[in-house]
Amino acid sequence: MPLWLPLLLLAASAPAWAGTYDVFGTGARAIALGGAYTAVGDDIAGLYYNPAAITQIERLDLELAYGRMNPQLLINGRAQNIDDNRGFTLGGVVSTKILDRRLSLGLNFFLPDAHFMRFLVLSGNQPHAALDANANHIFTCLIGAGYQLTDRVSVGVGVNVLATEIGGVNFTINEKTPSEGSVFSDLSPSYALIAGVWARPVDWFRIGAAFRDKVEMHFSLPNVIHIPALTIWQTNNVTILRPSLLDLAAESNSHFSPRAVEFGVAFEPDKHWQISANLTWDQWSAMRTDAPYASVTVTGGLGDVFPTKPGVRPAPPDFYDTFSAALGVEGRPLLTEHWQVALRGGYRYRPTPVPDQGSVNNYLDADAHIFSLGVGAIGRALSAYLPHSLALDAYGQYQYSPARVYQKNSPDDFIGDLKFRQLWYGGGASLSVRF
User: Fold this and answer.
1) Which fold has domain 4-434?
2) Scanning 118, 206, 269, 327, which has its CA 20 to 30 A from the CA of 129?
3) In the chain, where are the structural domains located?
4) Which pLDDT score, from 0 to 100, does residue 146 have?
């Protein structure tokens, strides 16, 4: 079996790196507010930003959304082929009261319309965008619950459902009989915790805090080949080479999202205005390399003739932990018993976790300035035959990273110095129905 086969199997079977929610956010209203949503969270987006906040939903909330973001990445002045990010978000929250305290349960799905799962396998020295290059094609599933401790305080918990896969080949080469073997695969779910607390101490002020555990998929493909003893002639048992074992192993890490702690506030000075803000800590230093690793070990007779050495593992990324901040403003110029129109704007600053790439790694990223605008319209109790409310929200988002230059420590580096610039632009819309 050639050495490249485990890597080929790995590339074909594994899903993408970082989730789309971490890069672009979720929920039309939340994105329009720059992601400053931990203290707001009163729709299915709250399952990501703060599951405790979904207790604000009184009965049933269903939502369908679609969004698309288009990229532009330049490396040394040349445009790179980066896939756009597009897909559907759908989900719902159902809420009831138990012992006079509200309990809310919800689901939030992101379904890409181009690739259900996609994984980009690159060597550690291949220049690529660290957070979002071809990495947004991944099915996302969030499950969460919120419960009222008091009329003004709620707690929530949820999970990001993931998968871990181990698979490979166990094969025996037979000299006098047909060779035989098997392919095995073990796909098992894993769960990343999401938790939060939400409070409304006074009617015009909300506060929230949330924790999202890190997301990391690890894929392993062990391949074992049994080689029988080598004899001189088929009719005798004179062995010139004892049995051998060929162990081919390939592994990689993917779909990493950092452990995050988020704090948010939201003010409503009057019924026509809302101002929200977020501060987020991301533990990027826990990320392991996304470069594939392969090793070949030969034992037995062939090992005596062709001794092997352990493979060299890719260099760690050595990312930094970061603090990011977001601010969102919502104005409601039209607010009546049956109709509400809201105009929204937001800004988020995301410092890069990527250090200077003077050595073997070539992760590309820079500080990002994320601007967003949005509009929303809600109709309430329009007819006895319609749901309690219908809401249509739309947003536009622009992510801009100033040009950054990486200078290599060695003049003999075969990649050389790198100058890159990156931006994303796009938008989306959602339809929400509340009963």
Assistant:
1) Porin (2.40.160)
2) 327
3) 4-434
4) 97
